[in-house]
Amino acid sequence: MRLSRYFLPTLKETPSEAQIVSHRLMLRAGMVRQASAGIYSWLPLGFRVLKKIENIVHEEMQAAGAQPVLMPTLQTADLWRKSGRYDAYGPEMLRIRDRHDRDLLYGPTNEEQITTIMRDDIRSYRDLPRNLYHIQWKFRDEIRPRFGVMRGREFLMKDAYSFDLDFEAARKSYNIMFVSYLRTYARMGLKAIPMQADSGPIGGDLSHEFIILADTGESAVYADKRLLEMDPRADDIDFDADLEPIVKQWTSLYAATDEKHDPATCPLSADEMIEARGIEVGHIFYFGTKYSEPLGCTVSMPDGEKRLLHGGSYGIGVSRLVGGIIEASHDDAGIIWPDVVAPFDVALINLKSGDEACDAVANDLYAKLGDAGVEVLHDDRDERAGVKFADMDLIGLPWQLTVGPRGVKAGTVELKRRAGGEKHELSIDSALSRILDFET
RNA sequence: CGGAGCGUAGCGCAGCCUGGUAGCGCAACGGUCUGGGGGACCGUAGGUCGCAGGUUCAAAUCCUGCCGCUCCGACCA
């Protein structure tokens, strides 16, 4: 993509409404613009990141056996009256009325809807287990939206729903999601720690929040140091195997947010523990027959008995992750994207656009990288060097490849890694092969 | 929802207290010079001062109501 033609409205100054760093950087990097409190438009650069995260979530969900669907944003009030949540949900639910005076709502979540789908089309115990998910916009009329996309009213969420015959089977489905989540976050370059959460009226221990560590996180986190050394992507996972040992391995180590942490009962000594701040980016829970019962979601057993299905739901805040990743990965100059979610792989900076020799080298690099499938943002604008470097540091692409008259004369270009900032003068070919070796 | 603050050019802000018809920096546009980390100079353009009402000869400024946005707290992917 040529930057001269790309809609990338970067800002030198921070708009006054933005307080936390991810919000400031997202506005300054031209990723989003606020439409109203807690509601954002995604501009080209931000939209690319959102899609990258979405793709990773899709891949990891499907690797874990979940199947993608797409349910509507608008739901009928009747559906929610059946589960009792139409009244229970309170003012956080956005209620709408159509031209026939029928009550609708903008979905804050989809348990009722998916349970209805399963009820209508699953008849036999043989059809289980099932796990369906979608990535869809949600609306929750938060009392106080804040922190940019981190707590919006309209937000993009992945929500998966598992259906099983009984608790033991549901626990297996839960474990699959547990392990899948660890791998998903790790793949995005995030250190996520699962923490036991309140599981509501159902009870039991099957509810976990996934918290990523970031200095600017909303809540304090206390966790066993060993959790940081565990790599969920180290081993190949067979999702058909018994995952209980892996889950145990994680859940047996101490981890708590400040609401639950009690120094008096904490088993860790100070040097065994990390104190950090965290952001919740996922939440999984088992809820048994909470929805299958009121909605009548059953299957026939071998003996003809009708059995209520046991459900679980599993959320990942996709749009929140965009902010979360920035919170976890930035410096004074701007964003530092982990490679896999970066909107482009390489910032190709032509320091003297219009100069024949520089243009030739830059265009050649652009073509070769593009042919190899590397995504390049080519800064071909007629701007001063400082402006280009500042913009590229701000938007945080993993590589900066600088072509300038000085280097071109000597047959070299400069390759900079955004994370770490180390720069190298390299021959054009070796710069190229260094990027290609890494990216392909 | 309780508490606090803000709303003046695209962005960041001053002016308001003490009423006299709007200004600074950046950005934009035209030009000259410049050219490896947000450069310099000259010029140009851009405003229902959030909205409505009131007080006054006169309101960005004082008063009332409303709207919007932000922050702190209780709640949440």
3D architecture notes:
- This protein has 440 residues and is an alpha+beta fold.
- The protein folds into two domains: 3-335, BirA Bifunctional Protein, domain 2, CATH 3.30.930.10; 344-439, 3-Layer(aba) Sandwich (Rossmann fold), CATH 3.40.50.800.
- Helices cover 32% and strands 28% of the residues.
- The chain contains 14 helices and 23 strands.
- The longest helix has 21 residues, at 167-187.
- It starts with 20 loop residues before the first helix and ends with a helix.
- The mean pLDDT is 93.
- The structure holds one RNA strand of 77 nucleotides.
In short:
The chain is α+β, with helices and mostly antiparallel strands. It is built from 14 helices and 23 strands. The chain has helices at 21-28, 44-63, 77-83, 85-88, 111-121, 167-187, 226-229, 244-251, 292-295, 318-328, 356-371, 385-395, 405-410, 428-439, and strands at residues 32-36, 39-42, 67-68, 74-76, 94-97, 103-106, 130-139, 154-164, 192-196, 207-213, 219-224, 255-257, 273-288, 298-300, 306-308, 310-317, 330-331, 334-335, 346-350, 376-379, 399-403, 412-417, 423-427.
Q: In CATH terms, what is the architecture of the largest domain?
A: 2-Layer Sandwich
Radius of gyration: 24 Å
- The CATH class of the largest domain, by name, is Alpha Beta
The secondary-structure class comes to alpha+beta
Shape: globular
Spatial gap, N to C terminus: 19 Å
Counted up, domains total: 2
